[in-house]
Amino acid sequence: METIKYYLCGPTVYNYPHIGNLRPAMTFDILVRTKKYLGNNVIFLENITDIDDKIIKKAVEENKSEKEIAMFYEKYFLEQYIAFNMELPSKLIRVTDSLNDMYEYIQNLINVGAAYESQGNIFFDVNKYKNVYGKISGQKIENLLHDDENIFGKKSSLDFALWKSTSEGIKFDSPFGKGRPGWHTECSCFINKYFEGKQIDIHGGGIDLVFPHHENENIQHFALHNENIAKGWLHFGTLNYKNQKMSKSLGNIIYPHTFLEKYDADTYRLLILSTNYSKPINVSDELFESLQSQINKFSLIHNKFQLENYENNINKNIVNEIVNLFANLDFSNALSHLIKLTKTSKDYATFLYIAKILGFNFPNIKISKDDLKKYNNWREYVKNKEYEKADILRNELKEKGII
Q1: Strand order in the sheet with 230-236
Q2: 105 vs 119, 223, 270, 393, CA distance in Å?
Q3: Parallel, antiparallel or unpaired: strands 230-236 and 180-181
Q4: pLDDT for position 149
Q5: Annotated binding site
Q6: Residue 5 neighbours by CB distance under 10 Å
Q7: Strand 121-124 vs strand 115-118: parallel, antiparallel, or unpaired?
Q8: Which end of the chain is more exposed for a tag (fewer CB within 10 A), N or C?
């Protein structure tokens, strides 16, 4: 059985995420579910950045500690895994739980000559790896240089902090002095520890992380192991609401809890499955309504399957074929094959089986004995031409979304 190693850059917990921020987690959820179904062992790690300049700023604004801010928004973030029926990663790693690992990792980079101390900070020496740096983002190092090389005594403007000496916010004692870790170091440190320095299969994160974050992660790993940190990358497109990127300044953010007030979690999962992971999605109220309508149709198929006692004939060849497409992120093609299975009743069992593998909720909803009895009574009234009684039951069943 093949072991597949995944890592996702998780949230900086200083504010509520919006629904666009959930796209990477939802895509990895689908990826992990399908890979596991196909017989792979999957190790999936995600970090939580619980100390950062943004958290410190929020703590000052609200007159709270950094820990209070981080724990509040981490709790909200993890609640979305439950609300959207996503499986938690194999391991979630908080920065503040991993400081000793980071001290050791930074010291290893110093030991191999990849990092240096200046004014209480530890910087990565990018120019030592100038033939490698830029490969992840397609940047040329000469185009990135600018004239602030001497800030904090850095050798080059491209050198980034592994450890920051700071006068603001929480500070930790370390072998390098008081301060806090640099953002670019945490993920490469965790990958190094939990995957034992081995190259992982896929590293994921938002499209905005390609440079400098993922570039800086990769160069640290390369300095220690002489290979790229990952075989492949998943960089996720944005969710744009009414053709504009969601942002607080524009006031067009949709939070997960407000989304779920109007739509099913399955509606969001279907949205993610409807577009290639790297492409932006322009969402609108009309699109959400259309997707919700599709989920309602899927739910009716599941209800019909239960009410009419269809045979549970699952075509495993078709299952494997479609799940393979999803597992290889060929979402558009896979979804069209899946929807074709809803056209004839002989394929309902196969459709529902795949939908369950993909993490949809609707195949798990059981019709109550009371509603089943009402359905049978309705059919009996129709058969006996007792249309007035039939209409009353029909309206009840329709109101509840049973038929």
Answers
A1: 91-94, 41-48, 3-8, 200-206, 230-236
A2: 20, 11, 40, 67
A3: unpaired
A4: 55
A5: 9, 187, 213, 217, 248
A6: 21
A7: antiparallel
A8: N
DSSP 301-346: HHHHHHHTT------HHHHHHHHHHHHTT-HHHHHHHHHHTTSSGG
d(CA 173, CA 183): 17
- Structure-block tokens of residue 272: 């993610």
pTM, to two decimals? 0.94
Phi-psi region of 243 (alpha: psi -120 to 50; beta: other; left: phi over 0): left
Q: State the Cα–Cα distance between residues 222 and 141, nearest whole angstrom.
A: 16
Residue 275 near residue 281 (C-beta atoms within 8 A): yes
**Residue ranges of the alpha helices (H) in 16-146?**
23-37, 53-62, 66-83, 99-111, 141-144
The annotated binding site for ATP is made up of 248
286-317 pLDDT tens trace = 999 999 999 999 999 999 999 888 888 999 99
Cα gap 322→328, rounded to integer Å: 10
Which residues contribute to the annotated binding site for Zn(2+)?
9, 187, 213, 217
Alpha-carbon separation of residue 163 from 106, 121, 126, 266, 344 (angstroms) = 8, 5, 15, 42, 61
Name the one residue in this structure whose structure tokens are 């979304």. Answer: 401
**Facing residues of 164 across strands?**
180
pLDDT tens for each residue of 17-47: 999 999 999 999 999 999 999 999 999 999 9
